[in-house]
Structure formats: C-alpha cells, structure tokens
Amino acid sequence: MMMMCIWTGALVTAALSGSAMANSQDSLKVTVTLSEGEVRLREAVDIEVAVTDAAGLSDNAGWIVLYSDLDGQLSDLDSGEAGVAMVDGRGRLRTHFDTPGERVLVALAVDGVAASGVGSTSLTVTPLAPPTALVSSPLEDEVFEVGQPIPLSAEITRAGEGDVFAIWSSVWDGPLVPGNGDVLGVPLTVTGDRVEFSVDDLTVGRHLLVLRLWDEDGNISTTLREVEVR
Question: Of these four, 20, 79, 127, 227, which has the most CB atoms within 10 Å of its CB?
C-alpha cells in the first residue's frame, strides 16, 4: 500500500510539473475535458474523464481521482466523494473552487487490473465582480430643506450568492443611520435587491453622499451622489 501511494503521488506530481515521467508507466490513455474552460469563483464545473486502454477500447471499469495543483485532491459536489467510479471508460466529477487563479487539473485513472493512466488540462477561475448599486434617490444635485427626510434608495446587483453589505455616509457628517435602530457605522446586510431608508439630520450645506458596497470576498464598489441641504 505504501509503494502504491508513493507511485500514485509520483504520477500526479509528474503530470502537474509537465514531466515526461507522467507517461512513462501509463497503459491507459486519459483525456480530461471541462464543461467550461473559465469559471467564476464558486461556480460549478463538470470535469469529464474518458479512458481507453492500449488497444483503444473504452470498456474499462475502475476508479478516477482528480487533483489540482492549487487545491489538492478534488471532491464531487453531489456525492462528497474524493473520486468517481469509472464506468465504460468514463467518469464525471462536478466541483467548484474557492480561490481564483489558473490551475492544472490532473486525472488519475486505475482500472480493475491495476493498469493506470494520467491526463491533465487547465482551468481559469476568475474572481467575482463586486456588487453594484443603481441609486434612484437622491438625485444628483437634489436640494432639501433642513429637517426634510432624504430618501436613500438603491437597487443592488450581486455577482455571487453570499452576503452583501452596505453603508451610506456623508463626507461631512459621517455614516448615516437608518431609523431602525442600527448602530452608527455598522453596515447593513442587504436582504433582497434593495437598500432603502431615510435620514433627516444632515447639516446645512452641500454633501457628497457615498454608498459603499462589499461582499464576503472583499470586492468593493462605491456610488456617489451630491446633494444640498439649506
């Protein structure tokens, strides 16, 4: 068992490094294809593996294990298994990645008579775009009277499924607090696709209002509105 682990590790290491050793002991031909050559962070990708023997036959049964040079051994999203059964010379693993970057994916196939083969391909994982806001209120250069409620309303577009956080602030008066008891300077967790509340305590003068959004990955966007209170 120890020798098998060392040999398997050597095959995978050779494939990741591009060494010719990866093919020196192979008796199975392994082809790796992807449903997408580029995916976003945490977006599912299907990894298809096709295996044929030295005679070109694809009726092999066995086991396929997949690795990434950045992530190590990969697990299937559906089953949670760290590998997939090879049936009629084919196997499929669905997975996703939590860090961006280009990576090399390696498939190691072993059939029922201990013949093996290694194949590889590359995949690019791109970061998520930051959340964005379409501000409907206030309008640019809108004028308000002292003590008049100023509605702050924005439609939020998010790239991923995680939490998005928001905070409105005035360059002069600091963070703006909605009337629902939120603590000064503590961001709101965006629920749904809108951020809406009003403030009525801005000081007299021109204000640059800033809506700052960010997600769990640290992607940030800002939207500006200038208003006047008189």
Answer: 227
Handedness of CA 217, 226, 143, 183 (dihedral sign): positive
Q: What is the CATH number of the domain that holds 149?
A: 2.60.40.10
Same domain, 140 and 201: yes
CATH of the domain at 60: 2.60.40.1930
The pTM (predicted TM-score) of the whole model is 0.67
pLDDT band at 193 (very low <50, low <70, confident <90, very high): confident
Kindly give, in sequence order, each residue whose CB lies less than 8 Å from that of residue 142, ignoring residues fewer than 6 positions away. Answer: 225, 227, 228
CA distance 165 to 188: 5
**Domain residue limits at 184:** 132-229
**Gap between the Cα atoms of 140 and 226, Å rounded:** 5
Neighbouring C-beta atoms of residue 84, cutoff 10 Å: 24
Q: Which of 126, 156, 178 is the last residue of a domain?
A: 126
Q: State the DSSP code for 149.
A: -
